[in-house]
């Protein structure tokens, strides 16, 4: 089976002895939209950084669309070219504040333009038109000449998604993209991620604190607890009772933000799942030692 993302035996212990990832096994099919949930410190950001090859694990193998991102603790030598197919939307906004929004978006195609043009940030008319079109799709075309620093938090996240679009990313990794946003901005950002997934067939992995957002937007959820996958299956099966079984007292953190965007009207309903899993699989007991 073709996979967009394949992870096997990935573990990471930081210098302070913290086991951030423990024996992660994961397969994500092209076109899936997968939520990564877990309490603070469960390893969501660390896993996403390993998927992009921004951090090397101690052991294990990560592949994106058949290309090695990292193997046995070493990031691939051609990681820049592998990363060209991966869009990353960070929790902390990652635009160059002093540059116009359009230039930030066009930065997504720097890997495709000649060096002199990338250094001088010179883009052709056609490239600029693609950037404006991407901004139109995320609903902020009118902001294209504004400095990125003047955008609201939600608009900055939308610009980051537009950048991934012009990059031609086949996989988008979004690390808590709605963590700092109000409910309305959160809904917009999640709607846009769902749209890119649905219309462009882009595989999306989005880490979230709120289980209700995962259930609303993602057919599949992978739940982490203390660096381990404790659940990988349909989001619809994540009842409060199951979450309490998986997380114990930590379940409150995931459930407490219950209605962050869930009550808003018009939110996208997830598309029919194209799962690379077959049955709900609570992976291991949440009672594993950290
Ligand atoms: N560079 C680092 N050095 C040492 N420990 C780290 C480092 N990065 C992460 N950790 C630890 O690894 C664990 C997982 O952190 P991570 O940021 O991945 O969790 P998270 O689920 O994304 O949390 P949050 O929801 O708060 O962002 C935490 O215990 C964290 O303190």
Automatic annotation (TrEMBL):
Region (Disordered) location: 265-290
Keywords: ATP-binding, Cell membrane, Membrane, Nucleotide-binding, Translocase, Transport
GO MF term (any one): ABC-type phosphonate transporter activity
ABC transporter domain: residues covered: 5-251
SUPFAM superfamilies named in the record: P-loop containing nucleoside triphosphate hydrolases
GO CC term, one of those recorded: membrane
InterPro entries hit by this protein: AAA+_ATPase, ABC_transporter-like_ATP-bd, ABC_transporter-like_CS, ABC_transpr_PhnC, MetN_ABC_transporter-like, P-loop_NTPase
Coiled coil: none
Protein name as annotated: Phosphonate ABC transporter ATP-binding protein
Lineage of the organism: Bacteria, Pseudomonadati, Pseudomonadota, Betaproteobacteria, Burkholderiales
Designated gene of the protein: phnC
